[in-house]
Recover the amino acids of this structure.
């Protein structure tokens, strides 16, 4: 299965685009970075301008519409040392790279790929020292960027350092590489040996948190990469935002949930697309999305139906539970403020809402209605 995957960072080398399209999209790539590869491009139906795989990786002029902000969840608020975020007591997030196999157009950290951004630490030793000095941290998420972009020996240094910390019991790697370039796994036995070593020799568990956004990304090569990782004893899960024009339909989500379950990659989270600058074209309305997700759940086994629909809000991870004719229900799945832990919330419905803040802005009006109905 040897195959050289070539990365593309210039639209001029996307031969399937016309000269006019490249020229129109150049102003988008001047603002938001562009990166793809020939493997991922081969999944696109270039005859369809609305092809979902194309929408994931090829720029659109709609990204230039003013909307949202670059750090939509205010991650900078939880940055403790360069390249490390500590939002929840037991979890640390280590930014290990500012490069991905592809740059998803809806990325909520697209600010990392801009020239004037330095949130990612080239040297993660300060972040590792922070984790070492905080014994309450029992799990660490390696992210970025995509950690599997790193050379295996660089990733090994990080994993070995974490393996030496008794209080760290879980390490998670957040990666889209099995969807974007499965040959990164297929062609690197040293990476697989590293995964196997961590899970069999350290007394800890390494998880690979995947990002399959659409069932067409689950190719023969992707399945092979999944099988190889599974043989190392590494549990795999999957998470994806719900994205307009990509996976915001019952049948697409049903197929995605089924295919993930069939190959032993449990669906973990469906995320509400964050209101990040450039993302308006990908954002869906929460209440419509909730209906789509619930309809998809009815068509799959319990293994697929256990996926949670959440928002990664500044205040915590908020699960979207359900709705009635008048109200919508939320719960803090994780909360930055301990006082909010497990908090159940009821708000008046807002059919145009794209984010949690669209409900909280109406809270006073809601309280009046609640008093009239229940008091």
């Amino acid at each position: 299965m040897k195959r050289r995957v070539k990365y593309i960072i210039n639209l001029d080398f996307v031969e399937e685009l016309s000269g006019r399209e490249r020229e129109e999209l150049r102003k988008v790539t001047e603002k938001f970075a562009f990166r793809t590869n020939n493997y991922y491009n081969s999944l696109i139906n270039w005859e369809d301008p609305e092809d979902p795989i194309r929408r994931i990786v090829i720029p659109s002029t709609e990204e230039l519409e003013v909307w949202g902000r670059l750090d939509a969840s205010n991650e900078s608020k939880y940055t403790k040392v360069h390249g490390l975020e500590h939002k929840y007591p037991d979890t640390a997030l280590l930014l290990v790279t500012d490069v991905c196999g592809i740059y998803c157009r809806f990325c909520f950290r697209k600010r990392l790929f801009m020239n004037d951004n330095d949130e990612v630490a080239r040297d993660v030793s300060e972040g590792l020292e922070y984790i070492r000095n905080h014994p309450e941290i029992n799990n660490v998420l390696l992210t970025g960027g995509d950690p599997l972009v790193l050379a295996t020996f660089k990733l090994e240094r990080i994993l070995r350092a974490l393996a030496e910390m008794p209080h760290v019991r879980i390490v998670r790697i957040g990666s889209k590489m099995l969807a974007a370039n499965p040959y990164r796994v297929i062609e690197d036995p040293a990476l697989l040996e590293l995964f196997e070593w961590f899970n069999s020799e350290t007394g800890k568990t390494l998880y690979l948190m995947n990002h399959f956004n659409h069932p067409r990304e689950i190719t023969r090569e992707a399945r092979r990469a999944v099988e190889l990782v599974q043989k190392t004893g590494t549990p795999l899960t999957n998470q994806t935002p719900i994205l307009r024009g990509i996976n915001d339909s019952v049948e697409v989500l049903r197929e995605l949930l089924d295919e993930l379950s069939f190959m032993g990659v449990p669906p973990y989270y469906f995320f509400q697309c964050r209101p990040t600058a450039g993302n308006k074209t990908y954002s869906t309305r929460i209440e419509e999305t909730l209906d789509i997700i619930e309809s998809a759940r009815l068509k799959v086994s319990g293994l697929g139906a256990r996926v949670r629909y959440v928002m990664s809000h500044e205040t915590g991870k908020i699960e979207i539970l359900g709705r009635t004719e008048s109200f919508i229900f939320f719960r803090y799945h994780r909360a930055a403020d301990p006082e909010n832990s497990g908090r159940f919330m009821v708000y008046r419905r807002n059919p145009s809402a794209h984010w949690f803040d669209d409900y909280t802005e109406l809270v006073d009006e809601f309280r009046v209605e609640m008093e009239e109905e229940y008091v």
Observations:
- Residues 19-31 form the longest helix (13 residues).
- The two ends are 67 Å apart (CA to CA).
- Residues 7-64 form one domain.
- Residues 96 and 147 are 6 Å apart (CA to CA).
